[in-house]
UniProtKB/TrEMBL annotation:
Pfam families: ACP_PD. It comes from the Bacteria. This is Acyl carrier protein phosphodiesterase. It comes from Pedobacter helvus.
Length: 223
């Protein structure tokens, strides 16, 4: 799941550290793809106040992703979108399965916004309330010593309020293009981009019918 879908499960949580923890694994990967840390395997390092709540959010993220990616809902929706993407990607290096995976996740974020299931600014407000000292100590306990690099990315993430762009469907298409550009040179032509937006518009209407099923299912199974 993507940032906003993770936030959904802790949208009413008053503890800012928990909220940050629920999206921190993805933030770290975006800040530096070589950072591959597993604080959940070293819980003894995160018992102090502030660190334990960040770890609680982190573990919540892992549990939500496990439930989501192992669900029949995700597998079915990904296959449906993949079938629609295959014809428009025949001249592109992008794998339809990869694009379908990320596409379903971003469309879920978009639908949460559209149906007013979350308030994006509430997420950003929580992030602003996280104590820098708590986050720094958490990163150092994960053996991430280049904390300035992370905070440069994190502060930019907060100030840009990029997730607000997910309100418009055409920006979902743009976000997918940017993700693909990290992996492939020139992944899309202008026609690919136009076709992708059309497919997303068509599939969004199908996904919209029962998209809350997966959120209800996961929420009922969270510890």
């Amino acid at each position: 799941m993507n940032f906003l879908s993770h936030f959904y499960f802790d949208r009413n949580t008053p503890n800012a550290n928990i909220v940050l923890g629920t999206i921190l694994p993805d933030l770290l990967k975006n800040a530096n793809k070589s950072w591959n840390v597993h604080p959940e395997k070293h819980i003894e390092l995160f018992q102090e106040k502030g660190l334990n709540t960040l770890l609680k959010g982190w573990n919540r993220h892992l549990q939500v992703d496990l439930l989501f990616h192992s669900s029949s809902f995700f597998n079915n929706k990904m296959q449906e979108l993949k079938r629609l993407l295959i014809p428009i990607l025949k001249d592109s290096p992008v794998r339809p399965s990869f694009l379908a995976h990320i596409g379903v996740e971003l469309l879920l974020d978009h639908l949460l916004i559209q149906h007013q299931k979350i308030t994006i600014n509430s997420l950003y407000n929580s992030l602003e309330n996280v104590k820098e000292d708590d986050l720094t100590r958490f990163l150092l306990s994960c053996n991430i010593t280049d904390t300035p690099q992370f905070f440069k990315f994190f502060n930019s993430f907060k100030s840009s309020r990029y997730l607000l762009s997910y309100q418009k469907l055409e920006n979902i298409s743009y976000a997918l293009q940017r993700i693909c550009m990290r992996l492939w040179d020139h992944p899309f032509t202008e026609k690919h981009t136009l076709d992708l937006t059309s497919v997303l518009e068509f599939y969004k209407n199908q996904l919209e019918i029962d998209f809350m099923v997966i959120f209800d299912e996961i929420e009922s199974r969270l510890i």
